[in-house]
Amino acid sequence: MEDCIFCKIVKGEIPSTKVYEDDQVLAFEDINPISKGHTLIIPKAHAENLWEISDEDLTAVHLASKKVSEAIKKALDSVGVATLQLNGRGVNQVVMHYHLHLVPRSGGAPELPITKWEIKPGDMDTIQQTGQQIAEAIR
Ligand code: AMP
Ligand code: ZN
Question: Probe ligand 1: pick from 40, 86, 91, 97, max atoms within 8 Å of CB?
Fold first, then answer.
């Protein structure tokens, strides 16, 4: 896609700090890292998000995430790696080319803001009703 910044990275028109590449995917460092080693994995073929990406490319991205997160853990001695994908503008997806964030946390580093939220029990009737609605939409 012509105006897509990540397509430009795939084509080499914009520089990136590449860490892994195969026929289907590319992994590179995020230029606004939440933590040291914040890496993005993208399909080389343009797809906006989870609703658009092909099963093959989605599989390839997630298989690569296993490989790259193992490397992050080894290289940076991480105690954990959060994986995150913002799916749609309504949840703050900014770059409209599917990407999986790998955000590591090193030992002793403060907790990541993206993994910290208040745990509050929900209303069980609402949870069950909502679950049923979603299950029916799958059928
Ligand atoms: P999202 O909100 O999930 O769409 O996040 C987009 C991410 O892409 C942000 O974390 C940005 O810092 C990152 N980003 C944007 N442009 C570039 C670029 N040229 N190279 C590396 N990362 C980028
Ligand atoms: Zn693109």
Answer: 40
